[in-house]
Amino acid sequence: xxxxxxxxxxxxxxxxxxxxxxxxxxxxxxxxxxxxxxxxxxxxxxxxxxxxxxxxxxxxxxxxxxxxxxxxxxxxxxxxxxxxxxxxxxxxxxxxxxxxxxxxxxxxxxxxxxxxxxxxxxxxxxxxxxxxxxxxxxxxxxxxxxxxxxxxxxxxxxxxxxxxxxxxxxxxxxxxxxxxxxxxxxxxxxxxxxxxxxxxxxxxxxxxxxxxxxxxxxxxxxxxxxxxxxxxxxxxxxxxxxxxxxxxxxxxxxxxxxxxxxxxxxxxx
Length: 269
Hints:
By secondary structure, the protein is α+β, with helices and mostly antiparallel strands. The protein folds into 2 domains: 5-117, Roll (Nuclear Transport Factor 2, Chain: A); 129-263, Glutaredoxin. It is 35% helix and 21% strand. It contains 9 helices and 14 strands. A 5-stranded mixed sheet has the order 10-12-11-13-14. A 4-stranded antiparallel sheet has the order 4-5-6-7, with helices on one face. Helix 6 runs antiparallel to helix 7. The longest helix has 15 residues, at 5-19. The chain is globular and about 60 Å long. The relative contact order is 0.11.
């Protein structure tokens, strides 16, 4: 049984691997599946309970770094999100935890309520990042849609995606890059990304590093690379490229332009 906050977070990280790709795992999730029904606004009493849970939640006498607690459609079950970005479910007094995704069994099949919540949080977090801290490839005119891409210049599939940017721009899709050096800060990729963000022309510098070159302007400056890396980790980014759609959906890996156009609903525009 975990007896520290770090152990609880480690269990939550491990469950992602254990559940991945296992359709049969739905039977294991049965206790966490919400029976069909509409999502009702949280009652005042539920809000009070959530607030109390956020203030008092602890493991082995250690307070948990709680960021937010929300009521769920299941009576007496609350969604707890930690400052680290990890989340789990708790009963009202914090004596029992469930680690996994919560599904609603509705008329149109299973709906992953946990992933919906993650998407909303990603969209809100990225909306708070100003354009001045992004490397933007927009093309001519106003875009029909904007995707945020966490990138690493040492990643072959990031280079492949970068090569499709002219086609994406032609389809009306703007690409906003954010930094995610896979090997962490202090790596060669992190240094390259810092050079890009410190360049007089970040877009041109990004083109250069994607071609394996050193940016022509490589002055040092205060830059958002470390903060963006931390943000990516908190938002669930585990590799690159990682594409975030306007609704906050996280799409890992390279996506061909035609598929991305379809995912954004732009086929007929």
